[in-house]
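Co-fold these.
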Amino acid sequence: MQVGTERIQEIVKSLRNFSRLDETELKQVNIHEGIDNTLMILEHRLQARHEYPEIKVIKKYSQLPNVTCYPGQLNQVFMNIIVNAIDALEALVVNDQWSKVNPQTTSNQILTKNNPKIEIKTEVIDEKWITVSIADNGLGINEEFHSKLFDPFFTTKAVGKGTGLGLFISYQIIVEKDKGQIRCFSVPGEGAEFVIRIPIC
Ligand SMILES: Nc1ncnc2c1ncn2[C@@H]1O[C@H](COP(=O)(O)OP(=O)(O)OP(=O)(O)O)[C@@H](O)[C@H]1O
Ligand SMILES: [Mg+2]
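Predicted complex below.
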């Protein structure tokens, strides 16, 4: 019971930090805190359960300055991208709807089934920019979809599973509001990497 209540306490604290309802203004934000809160909320999807193996999260955090942005919204972006990565890793295990997108299972995908991981790297690029990169070794993204990823309602997921708004909203927040950049790199069958550039001030 004690372990359970401690865990509930942690989740409630993370949810409160994550949504930052009391902070709708531009603010100095600690990026790593935002990522860690997001991971805490998603922990139930990272743990091993039923046929899904545990998803390892590898953090490669650099020393970062605080950046000025809307904290709740930035956390929303981390959430959207990490949830997509988890979906892409789970899709390798239960390859139902997604098999239409990527019919050939490569040897690398079979390996990934047993070794799913998400790597989160932060870096200072120069005095103006920091980057956050979130990479998975999941299904990957076919070349033909790259130009559509950030369009509203573009989804390859089953009806009722994806609305196709996650990356569209993330793009609005990063590019339109925070004057940053968001890009995707992927080799189909090997995984996908989303790189966010955020201006320091
Ligand atoms: N890490 C990833 N690996 C493979 N495909 C991805 C990844 N991230 C995004 N995609 C592809 O981009 C599409 C659009 O992503 P987006 O987050 O906008 O929508 P969604 O996840 O389908 O639905 P929603 O986020 O609204 O629930 C996904 O349906 C998927 O095909
Ligand atoms: Mg999504």
